[in-house]
Amino acid sequence: MKGSFEQKNKPDIDPKDPRFKIAHREALIGVILVIINFAWWYGFAYGLGSKPVSEYTYIFGLPAWFFYSCVVGFLVMVVLVIIAVKGFFKEVPFEDEEGESK
């Protein structure tokens, strides 16, 4: 009885649907962007921020490590995300070919 209920409510998912390939590629792009963001932040925060405070340089009143890791890093990531979405992401319909929504 339980098995028939699950079979009736199981959605028809075709693993060969080209939308899955697009979704996987776009997820991979998202993971790459996260890794770039972390590497940027970590590199500037711990690369420049590991000096004694007396040796810090300041930009707009902020320590250089903070300015480059958080302020510039945010702006760089915004630009990269815009480039990724505009250049690599595709519009994918949520409806199958017969017009039924899932």
TrEMBL record:
Q: What keywords are annotated for this sequence in UniProt?
A: Membrane, Transmembrane, Transmembrane helix
Q: What phylogenetic lineage does the species belong to?
A: Bacteria, Bacillati, Bacillota, Bacilli, Bacillales
Give the residue spans that cross the bilayer. 27-45, 65-85
**What top-level branch of life does the organism fall under?**
Bacteria
Q: Does the keyword Transcription apply?
A: no
**The protein's name in its UniProt record:** YhdT family protein
Q: What PANTHER family does its record include?
A: INNER MEMBRANE PROTEIN (PTHR39174:SF1), INNER MEMBRANE PROTEIN-RELATED (PTHR39174)
**Xref: InterPro entries:** DUF997
